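Subject: Sanity check before I submit

Could someone independently write out the structure tokens for this chain? I want to compare against mine line by line before I put it in a report. The sequence has 182 residues.
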Amino acid sequence: MKKLNTFILIYFSTMLFSLAWAGTDEELVRTLITDQAKAIADFPRTKNKQAVLKFFSQDYSSVTDGITSDLKDTEKMLSDFEQQINLGNPLDISNRVSNIIVHVSGVLAWATFDNESKISVMGKIIEEERDKCTGIYQKKGTQWIIQHEHCSTPTDKDNQEGLTRSGADSQEFFTSKFFVRL
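---
Independent answer below. Compare away.
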């Protein structure tokens, strides 16, 4: 009897620990969003494209202030970043997400969040964005991936100016004419 009680205790403890370890789907999507933002911010140091791309589905698409892009565009952006780093141009990316609200329904999820990103080259800001974003996520097996994102720059209601500032230098510096959400 003592062995049976010990087995039951160990079994249920393991089950509860496994459920707690796995986290809820909402937590997993929230982690996906923050980990993806961190991978992009870390890119100038790591130059690890796969660390960024692993978060996206193969048919990923995005719209940022009316500009569409897909996974190939994201790969090109990372290659452009890497090329500039290899040319000796110090690149710094800061990327922060906040106010993440996640909703899950089966194998699909959507989230809204704020995204603030800044790209600097040799200490000069060439791109700065503060966006309101909505993402759509899909669960593949036990992993959540980004299917689609839509980000827009809010305007200041008092003077109707966008809160995004990007200099002409960004188009001159990178061969890409756009930036997907950073």
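---
OP: Matches mine. For the report I'm noting this point. Residues 6-22, 162-182 have pLDDT under 50 and may be disordered.
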